[in-house]
Automatic annotation (TrEMBL):
Belongs to the binding-protein-dependent transport system permease family. The keyword Cell membrane applies. The complex is composed of two ATP-binding proteins (UgpC), two transmembrane proteins (UgpA and UgpE) and a solute-binding protein (UgpB). Residues 72-284 form the ABC transmembrane type-1 domain. CDD domains: TM_PBP2. The chain crosses the membrane at residues 12-34, 71-94, 106-129, 157-181, 202-221, 268-288. Keywords: Cell inner membrane, Cell membrane, Membrane, Transmembrane, Transmembrane helix, Transport. It holds the Pfam family BPD_transp_1. This is sn-glycerol-3-phosphate transport system permease protein UgpA. Part of the ABC transporter complex UgpBAEC involved in sn-glycerol-3-phosphate (G3P) import. Probably responsible for the translocation of the substrate across the membrane. The gene is ugpA.
Length: 294
């Protein structure tokens, strides 16, 4: 069979094709990241008129600040809860839809819709549902003997942002899990059924192990999502309150830098947050990926 190979005479063309993406990466990622690293070693007045080099002073003060340590712990709880809840629900929905033959597309469309909602809109939606005076959920919870007021109860506020953030991410996980389940060879499932394995056993012994690459990929995506993309949800629902009970690391960067005008500390926090995500990603690829069966 004859195969034709396309060649380009100009050696400059590949670089020209890459130039737009390289320009965007340089302007919107590398340059701001470099500015943040530089600013984390400086003390700058709120108007940006003068700067003083202070070395590692901002980093030292962060690790001595109990509010920052508390935000770090809250972020860990928030990230684990949202990742676990959204992935478990996404897998459960995908397994349910995968068994449908006629109405599968209808349910897929309905489950994908939440992903099209902007994060801030998702936050406002759940804020209205859990509003202590006019919301539907506090009314139903009161019937069950539970008094809900996330404006005063820090634990309830954390539960609210976990639910809102997980609801926003379930659709994304559902799509990938559904695609993974539909790619499982039917011959394996039929052979297991002939051997007498029920649906539950077939799922845990065949489908779930074959989903390990998808699960690993979604685990990384969900951790990064909880670290960065949940800022609008927190800002729209609890504004970091009550009493800093829902102030995550990314929201503390905003509070100290944009609201408090402490640019040096905010830059140091953003650098530490980026390093935390990089270390988590490295650990996941270095150790967790070993258990993945491709």
């Amino acid at each position: 069979m004859d195969t034709k190979k396309t060649t380009f005479d100009s050696r400059l063309l590949p670089y020209l094709l890459l130039a737009p993406q390289l320009f965007i990466t340089l302007v919107f990622f590398i340059w701001p990241a470099a500015q943040a690293v530089k600013s984390s070693f400086e003390r700058e007045d709120p108007f940006g008129l003068s700067t003083t080099f202070v070395g590692l002073l901002h980093y030292q003060r962060l690790f001595e600040d109990p509010n920052y340590i508390d935000a770090l712990i809250r972020t860990a709880v928030f990230a684990v809860s949202v990742t676990a809840l959204s992935m478990v629900l996404g897998l459960a929905f995908a397994a349910a839809v995968d068994r449908l033959t006629r109405t599968g597309r209808v349910y897929t469309t309905l489950l994908v819709w939440p992903y099209a909602v902007a994060p801030v809109v998702a936050g406002v939606l759940w804020w209205f549902l859990f509003n202590s005076t006019t919301g539907l959920m506090p009314f139903l919870l009161q019937k069950a003997g539970i008094r809900w007021d996330h404006d005063l109860n820090g634990t309830q506020a954390m539960i609210l942002i976990i639910i809102a953030a997980a609801w926003k991410q379930v659709s994304y996980n559902f799509l990938f899990f559904l695609a993974g389940l539909q790619s499982v060879p039917q011959s394996l499932m039929e052979a297991a059924a002939i051997d007498g394995s029920g649906p539950v056993k077939r799922f845990f012994t065949i489908s779930l192990p074959l989903l390990s690459p998808t699960t690993f990929f979604l685990f990384i995506i969900n951790v990064n999502y909880t670290m960065f993309d949940t800022f609008p949800i927190v800002d729209a629902t609890t504004v970091g309150g009550p009493a800093q009970a829902t102030t995550t690391l990314v929201y503390k960067v905003y509070q100290d830098g944009y609201l408090g005008l402490n640019l040096g500390s905010s830059s140091a926090q953003s650098v530490l947050l980026m390093m935390i995500v990089m270390v988590l990603t490295f650990v996941q690829f270095r150790y967790v990926e070993r258990r993945v069966q491709y």
